Amino acid sequence: MTKLHTGLTGTANVTVTEANIAATMKSGSLAVFATPAMCALMEEAACAAVNAHLEEGSGTVGISLNITHDRATAMGDSVTATAKLTAVDGRKLTFEVSAADSKGVIGKGTHERFIIDNEKFMAKVNR
């Protein structure tokens, strides 16, 4: 099916700006990196870990995310998310994810994605 194997890693980076703070994303009222933005960055890192190893026409969709957001990040700081593929069970992929800013880890947990055929998936969505 694919050329996936445990140990694959990916990263994603973002700078904390007005666009991804809690006040803007309506996940709080403060000018700090929003939890939904951290979730998206972790998913982006997981995609980065596996996208180059998927068959043509395949993709992945997120099916679960179990994380903690342990510390706030100020505007202007940068955040890097890292994802490591820890299990491949048929089409289900499990990742260990974390995010860190210039002061250290701000969140961590696990994320699961499912391998899909992009065309078939979209056809089903649009039915």
From TrEMBL:
InterPro entries: FlK, FlK-like_dom, HotDog_dom_sf. Residues 16-119 form the Fluoroacetyl-CoA-specific thioesterase-like domain. Transmembrane segments: none annotated. Pfam families: FlK. It comes from the Bacteria. Substrate binds at residues 62, 113. CoA binds at residue 62. The active site is at residues 35, 43, 69. This is Thioesterase family protein. It comes from Phascolarctobacterium succinatutens YIT 12067.
